[in-house]
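The following block was generated as part of the benchmark described in Methods. Ligand: S-adenosylmethionine.
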Amino acid sequence: MSAASTANTASRDGVRTVAARVLATALEAKSPVGALLETARVGLSSRDQGLLHELVLGTLRWLRFVDFVLETAAARPLSKIDADLVPTLRVAVYQLLYLDRLPSHAVVHAAVEDIKRRSHRGAAGFANAILRKVAQRRDPTKRSIEWPIDTGDPIEDLATETSYPTFLVRRWVERFGKERAASALAAGNRRAGFQLTCLLDRDELAAELAIEGVETQPAEISARGLYVLAGDPRKTGAFRVGKFYIQDQASQAAALIPMPAAGDRILDVAAAPGGKSFSLLAAEPGVSLVAADVSLARVLRLRSNRERLRCGFGVVVSSGEQPGFGGGFDRVIVDLPCTGTGTFARHPELKWRISEGELSRLAGRSLEMLIPSADLVAVGGRLCAITCSLEREENEDVVAEFLDRRPDFELETLELTPEHASFVAGPGHWRVLPSAKHDGFTVHVVRRRR
Ligand SMILES: C[S@@+](CC[C@H](N)C(=O)[O-])C[C@H]1O[C@@H](n2cnc3c(N)ncnc32)[C@H](O)[C@@H]1O
C-alpha cells in the first residue's frame, strides 16, 4: 500500500487502523517510517497524530517482543496467522503491553471491530480470543504485563526481551561486554525527544523558547545543543525564523571532531539534509563551507533548511564517488550511508532491515566514496569519516582498508574539547555509544601527510 493511500483514508478510519497500515508499509518498504508518518497524519487531530506516532514507533521498537507474546497467545507461529490480521494484532498487543491510557476491553474491542469490518466473523473471533488472552495477563493495578521468556539461550532471551535481531545482540555483547551492550540496547528503545542545534547563544534561545512554552536543558556533549524536556519546538516562532536546527546532540558533536577553526575550507561530501554542516557553522561561523550530496531530493531539503536557517554556503548535487570539483580543502567530511545501528531510538524500523550481508555491502560503498574524497584534501588537511553505526565492518575495517590504499594518510592524534575528549576510542577514532540522552556515532579522522 502506498503512503498516499494511507493519507487519503486517514480521516475516515480510526487512528489504530491507520497505525496498522503504516506499520505494514514500514515493514514492507525501504522508506523511512518518518516520511510515512508525515503523510499518514494529514487530516488527524493533533491528539490522534500523537497516538499514531506512539503506536507505529512503539510497535516497531518492540516488534520482536510483541510477536513473541502474540505467538505464545495464539499458540502458533506468526506465519500461520492470516497476514492481513497481523498488523492490527501487533498494534493491539503493543497497546496492551506498553500503553496504559485505554482499558484492556476497549483495546480489544477496537481491534476486533476493525478486523470485523475488513474480514470474516471467524477472523474476528480468533483475534478476540488471542487479545483477551494477552489482556488477562495485564495487572489491573499497574496495567503492565509480565511475560516470562526462556528459550534456553541467554542471547536469544536477551534479544527477545529487548526486541532486537539475535545476531545484533550477539555481536554487541561480544564487542562491548554484557553491561555496555545492555545499556546500548535499552538506549535504542527509548522514546527519543527533540534536540536542537542553536544558531545563536544557547541560553538566549532557551529563554526565548521558554516564553513559547518549550522547556529545555543544555545538552551534555554539544556546547551548542539543547535538549527539549517539554513542548513542540517546531511550533515556535524561533523555529520559523531559523534560530535552531533539530538534531541529536551526538550528531552535532560528531561534526566537531575535532573543532573547526575560523577560515577553514570545508567540504561536506554527503551533506543532506544538512545536520553536520549546520553544526559546523553553529560552532564556528567563520568557516567556508561547501555542502554536496548525490540525491537531488535531499539537496532540495538541505536548501530549504539552509534558507530557513539563513546560512550562506554553497550547495551542489554531486557524487562522492566522482566529485566534480577541485581539491585543497582543510577538512573533507564524509557522513557515510550506513546501517544506522546508533540511531534505533529515532529509526526503529532499521532494526528489522539490518542484516550481516547489508553490513558488507555498505562497507564497500563507503570506500568508493572515501578514496575519491581523499583527493580533495589539502596536504596537512584532514578527512573525517562519520557514521551513525557502531559496527566494525562500517567503521574500523573501512578505515583500515582506506589506509592500506592511501598511505599518504595517517590516523590523527585527536585533541578535543573536554566534552568530547572522553569518547576517544584510539588514535583518530572517536565513538559515542547510544545512551538515555543521545544516539551513537563513530568518527575516524585521518590526516594527509603528503
Ligand atoms: C547519513 S546521510 C547524511 C546526513 C547528513 N550529513 C546530516 O548530518 O544531515 C548520508 C547521505 O549520503 C548521501 N549519499 C549516498 N551516496 C552518496 C554519494 N555517492 N555521494 C554523495 N552523497 C551520497 C545520501 O543521499 C544521504 O543524504
